[in-house]
C-alpha cells in the first residue's frame, strides 16, 4: 500500500514537476549538444554495433531509472523526518 503511494508520488513528480525545473537554457543546450553528438557517433557504427549500443543504453536507462526512484524515495523519507521535527 505504501509502495503504491510512493510510486504514485514519484510518477506525478516526474510528469508534473521535474520537467518544469528542466526548462532552462543550460539544459536545452546540453540536450541539443548531446543529441547532435550521439547522432554523429551513430553514423560511424555498423548495424551490429548500433544494436549492441542500443542494448547497453537500454540497460543503462533501467539502472538510472532505478537510481532516480531511490533518490526520490530518500528525499521523501528525509522530508517526512523533517516534518516530524
List the helices and strands and how they pair.
Blueprint: H1 2-21, H2 25-42, H3 47-84
What is the percentage of strand-forming residues? Answer: under 5%
Whole-number count of domains: 1
> Element order, helices and strands?
HHH
What distance separates the N and C termini?
25 Å
Global Rg = 18 Å
In a nutshell, what does this entry contain?
The protein has 85 residues and is mainly alpha-helical. It has one domain.
Structure description:
By secondary structure, the protein is mainly alpha-helical. It has one domain. It contains three helices and no strands. It has helices at residues 2-21, 25-42, 47-84. It is elongated, with a radius of gyration of 18 Å.
Keywords:
single chain, 85 residues, mainly alpha, 3 helices
